[in-house]
Every structure is written in structure tokens, then in C-alpha cells.
């Protein structure tokens, strides 16, 4: 029993490390600037397809996925960065406002930034599950984030914890941070994906 539990634990750790190393490899293939978005999408897609079946997670499949998702991954990633930059700039400007309205505006802007980040995670997951156009993908991701506040909180809190632990243990940046964020998002949204599948079956 203990031996089986340890084996399962080591397999999960190896999958996390393996996917995170893939992320850095593919990011470098895109010279970081054009590689981070498709690399995140590739890591997400590999885990969605194989979960903890580490032998099925191969560099060859990852490379094929990276090339296939290169343009789409960059569009989604830089759409998020642009939106976050606009929100952050408005947050910077709002500091100059006095009184209670300052707190209300800041709260709304911070919430919007969290909402955008969670929507990005939803878009990666949904794009890995369904064949869907980019416009409809973004709509579905937006609706998915809005429809379940509990999942939004779970993803936001989980990612915050991962980033906090990473801040304490910098080595995770190389060996675990990015893959753990994708895996946690996958786990936190399981119930919502099942709901979408049920609705699709009803309308099939």
C-alpha cells in the first residue's frame, strides 16, 4: 500500500517536472517572446490528453503540438498580456484618485485582472478539449469563468499559492511552476467541463 502510494507520488512529480521542462524547451524554441504562449498551450494539451501517463507524454508529440499551436497560442497569450497591461495602467492611474471611489475602482480593476487570467486558463483548457473557432473559444472561456464563481476562486487561489511557494523556492520556476498551474487549472475545472459535455450531449 505504502509502496504504491509512493510510486503514484513519484509519477505525479515526474510528470510535473517533465512538462515544465518541455515548457522551457518550447519557449526557447520560440525565443521566449514568441514561445511562451504556444508552450503553455502545448503543456496544457499534453496533460489533458495523457494526464499522469508519463510514458505517453513525449517530446515528439509536444513538438508537433507546439508547431500546430504556434499562431493560436501567441494570439491568446498576447491578448491576455495586452488586457492585463491596460488594466494595470488604469490601476496605476487610479492611485491618484482620493476617497472611497479609489478603493472601489481598485477592487474592480484587480478583480478584472484576476478574471482575465482565469479566463486565459479556461481558454487553454477548452481549446485542448474541443475543436472550436478562436472567437467562439474566447466567448466560451469568458462565459465559463463567469458562470462558476467557485471555480474562479479555486483557480485564482491555487495559482496564488503556487506563485507564493515559487517565490519561496525559486527552483520551481525551472522544475514545476508552469506545469503545476496548468494541472491545477485542469483539476479545478473538472466539474464545469463535465457540465459542458452533458449539455453538448443533450443538443447532439
UniProtKB/TrEMBL annotation:
State which residue ranges cross the membrane: 21-40, 75-93, 100-120, 140-165, 172-192
Q: Which UniProt keywords apply?
A: Membrane, Transmembrane, Transmembrane helix
Q: Does the keyword Transmembrane apply?
A: yes
Query: What Pfam families does UniProt report for this protein, alphabetically?
Result: DUF624
**Could you identify this protein by its name?**
DUF624 domain-containing protein
Its taxonomic placement starts with: Bacteria, Bacillati, Bacillota, Bacilli, Lactobacillales
Amino acid at each position: 500500500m505504502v509502496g504504491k502510494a509512493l510510486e503514484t507520488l513519484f509519477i505525479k512529480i515526474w510528470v510535473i517536472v517533465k512538462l515544465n521542462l518541455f515548457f522551457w524547451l518550447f519557449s526557447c524554441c520560440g525565443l521566449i517572446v514568441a514561445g511562451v504562449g504556444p508552450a503553455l498551450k502545448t503543456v496544457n494539451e499534453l496533460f489533458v490528453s495523457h494526464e499522469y501517463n508519463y510514458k505517453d507524454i513525449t517530446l515528439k508529440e509536444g513538438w508537433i503540438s507546439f508547431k500546430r499551436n504556434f499562431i493560436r497560442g501567441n494570439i491568446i497569450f498576447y491578448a491576455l498580456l495586452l488586457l492585463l497591461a491596460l488594466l494595470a495602467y488604469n490601476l496605476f492611474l487610479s492611485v491618484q484618485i482620493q476617497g472611497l471611489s479609489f478603493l472601489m475602482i481598485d477592487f474592480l480593476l484587480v478583480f478584472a485582472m484576476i478574471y482575465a487570467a482565469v479566463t486565459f486558463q479556461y481558454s487553454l483548457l477548452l481549446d485542448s478539449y474541443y475543436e472550436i473557432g478562436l472567437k467562439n473559444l474566447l466567448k466560451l472561456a469568458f462565459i465559463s469563468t463567469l458562470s462558476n464563481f467557485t471555480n474562479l476562486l479555486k483557480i485564482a487561489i491555487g495559482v496564488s499559492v503556487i506563485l507564493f511557494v515559487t517565490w519561496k523556492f525559486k527552483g520551481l520556476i525551472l522544475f514545476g511552476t508552469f506545469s503545476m498551474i496548468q494541472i491545477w487549472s485542469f483539476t479545478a475545472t473538472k466539474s464545469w467541463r463535465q457540465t459542458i459535455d452533458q449539455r453538448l450531449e443533450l443538443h447532439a
